[in-house]
Amino acid sequence: MHPVVKRLSIFAPLSAEEVSAISLAMANVFSVPAGHVLAREDDPPINLLYLLEGMAYRHKTLFEGGRQILSLLLPGDPCDVGITLLARRDHSLTAAVPSRLARISDAALEQLCSNYPRIRAAIQWATLSEESISREWLVNVGQRSALSAMAHLMCELYYRLRAIDLVDGLNFAMPLTQSDLGDAVGITPVHSNRVVQELRRRKLIAMGDGRLTILSLQGMEELAVFDPGYLHLEARYSPARRANS
Amino acid sequence: MHPVVKRLSIFAPLSAEEVSAISLAMANVFSVPAGHVLAREDDPPINLLYLLEGMAYRHKTLFEGGRQILSLLLPGDPCDVGITLLARRDHSLTAAVPSRLARISDAALEQLCSNYPRIRAAIQWATLSEESISREWLVNVGQRSALSAMAHLMCELYYRLRAIDLVDGLNFAMPLTQSDLGDAVGITPVHSNRVVQELRRRKLIAMGDGRLTILSLQGMEELAVFDPGYLHLEARYSPARRANS
DNA sequence: CGATAGTTTGATATCCTTCAAAACCTGTGG
DNA sequence: CCACAGGTTTTGAAGGATATCAAACTATCG
What we know:
Chain A is an alpha+beta fold. Chain A is 44% helix and 19% strand. The first copy, chain A, has a four-stranded antiparallel β-sheet with strand order 2-6-4-5. The longest helix of chain A has 27 residues, at 117-143.
């Protein structure tokens, strides 16, 4: 299934017509190597991208070398919805692994959305859930210990990848270096390494070769005090909700 | 001028008709006392609010007492655009001071936006700029020292309030307690106090009685390595940009 | 006037950073 | 096949920033 369809289907099932409209709109596909900078801070905001395969991250780099990873983009995630309303980009976007993306023009996206209101809603929903994830990251960095924050990040990745069928049991592709992980949770690469080692020592994870295995999901969730609600992955139109309205 | 109009006018000047349409749509006004919880985590997302006067903040509270303030809302800021697409709220919203707000139904807002496309764009822009601020907060908490982060937050407040004409020179209303400020930059109330004292000692700020004065904007900006670009407050349709397109 | 919230202070503990270097891994060119 | 370069992981030692704990002080308010 098309990655974007897969992603948006979490929000609401899409009709065959909607599915093919999406595939059609995402025709302009290209590939980039690992480390490729897709967009740079201060660039004029022209690219509307959808990640199809691989992984990318938003980040900001500081004065004296510090770097903060702001969010991780997984297959099907929209990269910069609506960004053309801003005068310039406030952060960069780079591919963490060799990735495939689709470029779509502002106009074409608007066309797609106005033809298919449910697609508009689904894309808005995807954007809202990315914002929710950002908020949780702020909690991660501001309130949790390094160990707990790292475990939390790994749990998040597991749930997000599982939702788009990209996990194999408790094992999944995780191409980020320990430095990258550190930059995501606001710690030093050296400390990131020690944290990863501690997780290994506790038999909670196994990691290497660009893959991560969660050995004890329960153990990780307890350590992180992880509650997947913020990912908004439950079916939006669940029976429980329907009963309320 | 209506606070929402003032806020949205930063994006683009609004016609008299658009101005009165906004005022009309925001007719359902109510007041809340300081500390009033406007919406709670896990609540069903029904309220669409606009802050008219005062100050509010989004926050998450943890297991064992920790609290992270996720963002500050100033007059004219939309509170929860689009949130009805989510099954439940992932964070709480509370008023920091006695505040006035407008409640507007999902349908009425959609009506307003579809009648006036420029208003839709302006609201989207306001949402995008709030997201940008959130990203900078992540940098604040993850990468800057407590002193630098606190200075950064104060600079941000100054610029945001200035943009909506709520500063008096370098002095403005800042009703947050030192604890609140600490929860915004991810530090302890005790440390927050020491940081504030250090800023005072360096003659960079004066603070008290619910007001903050920046004594040296340059000094604060240097300490924070502050660049207001992420606030996206420059006129969107500036001569410089027009020349490009 | 006592109660409650916010601010301030001091002493001590701990988490995380910094610095420096070694070990390891992978791809490249000779 | 080896040597080498560059990036990543690992280790150790030491310092610094922030947390924690406990208590005093200040202001505000009914």
